[in-house]
Amino acid sequence: MNAFQSYLHTFFFVYFPYICMVVFLVGSLARFDRDQYTWKSDSSQLLRTGTLRWGSNLFHIGILFLFFGHLVGLLTPHWVYEPFISAGSKNLLAVTAGGIAGLICFIGLTLLIHRRMFDPRIRLTSHRTDLAILIILWVQLTLGLLTLPYSLSHTDGSVMLVLSDWVQRVVTFRVGAAEALVHVAWPYKVHLVLGMTIFLLLPFSRLVHVWSGFATVAYLFRPRQVVRSRRLNLPAGHDRPRRSGTAD
């Protein structure tokens, strides 16, 4: 690795994660504070529902599974699951489950991109950023699927442990996170960089509505609404609306 490649490696895997993290959090907060009317997914369901029903459902099912799978798989320390499952078995499980979810998500996203590009009504009402973010997600999914053969070639789960260690060091602000990634295959590196870039772009795109999706979980635990009549201290039956023409 020459000096320029070393500089790029250090930038993307040491500094870039924190740049994306700050922009993701501060940008989302600023947009919610200043532009709440743009905090939406800009649904095109009213224009045409056919392909949207299949594409959206497949995409969301797949992307949610992939998101939480990556979240739990990468952030869980090895010593937590080591007594129950080996690194090699966990790697095989991740490849199998992630491959299925990735394929489901890929099919759904491809349908959504085809709909947005080749349906005249949808294309005319779409913003350029709508199609751009879909294409970025499509490329990211493709890269993720390309990493599966590389993961299968490391049956001991060594690459998975390296990636997990890097993520855990980044989120806990520990040094030495990027050195182990030097010898990782290029699809992993591009997949990581593009994944961080998606978080960087999220506050400025329609993807910002995922915050609202996670926030709906709090709706399940909301306190019950208490409704009281404005007519207080009246005998039973006297708090009902009067009929027209009735005498006092």
Write a brief structural summary:
With 248 residues, this protein is mostly helical. It has nine helices and no strands. 65% of the residues lie in helices and 0% in strands.
Radius of gyration of CA atoms, rounded to a whole number = 25 Å
- Count of individual helical segments: 9
Approximately how much beta-strand content do the residues carry? under 5%
Give the averaged pLDDT, no decimals: 83
In terms of structural class, how would the helical and strand content be classed?
Answer: mainly alpha
Structural write-up:
- This protein has 248 residues and is mainly α.
- It has nine helices and no strands.
- Helix 1 packs parallel to helix 8 and helix 6 runs antiparallel to helix 8.
- The longest helix is centred in the N-terminal third of the chain and has 32 residues.
- The chain is globular.
- The model has no long low-confidence stretch (mean pLDDT 83).
